Amino acid sequence: MKKLEEYVRAIPDFPEPGIIFRDVTSVLQDAEGLHLAINTMQDLVKDLEYDVVVGAESRGFIFGTPIAYNNHKPFVLIRKKGKLPRETVSIDYDLEYGKATIEMHKDSIQPGQKVLVVDDLIATGGTTEAMIRLIESLGGEVVGVVVLMELAGLKGREKITGYRLDAAITYEGN
Predict the structure, then answer these.
(1) Does the global pTM surpass 0.70?
(2) Catalytic site residue 59?
């Protein structure tokens, strides 16, 4: 059986020279790779008690929904601005290459709910930090973050000090 890392394709010099892009689509396109990714991420947080799973558009949906389903928990979407139909709360944050706004339905997290955040990647930590702040603005308590991949060299973990972060794969460089 292959290791999870073997399903991730490394693409040099994308999106710019010197960057090694870790392609999650190669994991998704292989049934065994997808199965292993979901099971590994789920196993990392099996000791956590949480009420709801939250994932960011779009790869957080891919990994978060099966974890929520397998554990009989609701799944809450965090989307890019303007994509949700009901009343929302939003937050602006900095990206590696610009700025972004994410939002979620105002009634999607209830005060005191324990929340597990699921995403494909933590790099600089900006998106993860913004998700946590958004959840907490609604009174939710983030009890953990689980990602498929961590690019440790970009120090995203430092932005979310004080929160549990589990990664299925950790790359020391960028």
Answers:
(1) yes
(2) yes
